[in-house]
Amino acid sequence: MTRNRTSRAGPSAWPGYAAFALGLLYAAVSAYWAAGGTAGLDTVGGELARSARARDPGMVAVLWLTVGLKLLAALLGLALVRPSWRMPRRLLLPLSWVAAVVLTAYGGLLVGGQALVKAGAVEASSDMDWTAFDWHLFLWDPWFLIWGLLLCLAAHRGKLPRSTRP
Fold first, then answer.
1. CA–CA separation, 119 vs 137, rounded Å?
2. Which pLDDT band, with edges at 50, 70 and 90, does 12 fall under?
3. Which of 11, 108, 159, 163 has its CA 20 to 30 A from that of 151?
4. Are 79 and 92 in contact (CB under 8 A)?
5. Are the C-beta atoms of 70 and 103 separated by less than 8 Å?
6. What angle do CA 29, 71, 27 make, to 5 degrees?
7. How many whole angstroms separate alpha carbon 108 and alpha carbon 111?
8. According to the model, what pLDDT value does residue 77 have?
9. pLDDT grade, residue 5 (50/70/90)?
10. Exposed/middle/buried for residue 107 (C-beta within 10 Å: 0-12, 13-18, 19+)
11. Percent of the chain at pLDDT above 70?
12. What is the three-state SS of the chain?
């Protein structure tokens, strides 16, 4: 059986592909809102939802910037498992680790803090938007956490010496 030189087949590649897929889906949601879609905006709540719904130019710019950053982070997952891409590993691995740590820390800190509020260990503000809160606790913020953990795993596997990679 000949090894395909454009991708690493087998069980070691799945975290990179999964990180790519999660990032691509997350970028698509942001692109939908940046392009003027309003379905689901209530799930993010607060000023972000109000500004996006009002098509505030600053918020639209932030949303498009977010799309770009999410696409870049998603592509890092793919680049880690696609050796045919000509990005130097000395650049790819540090960028991947930075993105992985930021995504994991961001998602983990938010989910951890929200879990404390949900458990009653931390008092919620009196004007809490509980619908948006629950969406963040159970979807949006764990999505960042899982994406970050997958990218961590892909980056860890990406640093293995070539002779030990499948």
1. 12
2. confident
3. 163
4. yes
5. no
6. 5
7. 5
8. 94
9. very low
10. buried
11. 87
12. CCCCCCCCCCHHHHHHHHHHHHHHHHHHHHHHHHCCCCCCHHHCCHHHHHHHHCCCHHHHHHHHHHHHHHHHHHHHHHHHHCCCCCCCHHHHHHHHHHHHHHHHHHHHHHHHHHHHHHCCCCCCCCCCCHHHHHHHHHHHHHHHHHHHHHHHHHHHHHCCCHHHCC
* Residue in 8, 9, 23, 7 with CA at minimum distance from that of residue 150: 23
Look at residue 164 and tell me whether its pLDDT is greater than 60. Answer: no
- CA distance linking residue 147 with residue 104, whole number of Å: 7
> Model's pTM, two decimal places?
0.86
Measure the CA–CA gap between 78 and 150, rounded to whole angstroms.
11
Structure confidence by residue, pLDDT tens digits, 79-92: 998 876 677 888 89
Is 22 exposed, middle or buried (CB count within 10 Å of its CB: 0-12, 13-18, 19+)?
buried
Read off the tokens for 118.
Answer: 């949900």
**Tokens 């691509």 map to which residue?**
24
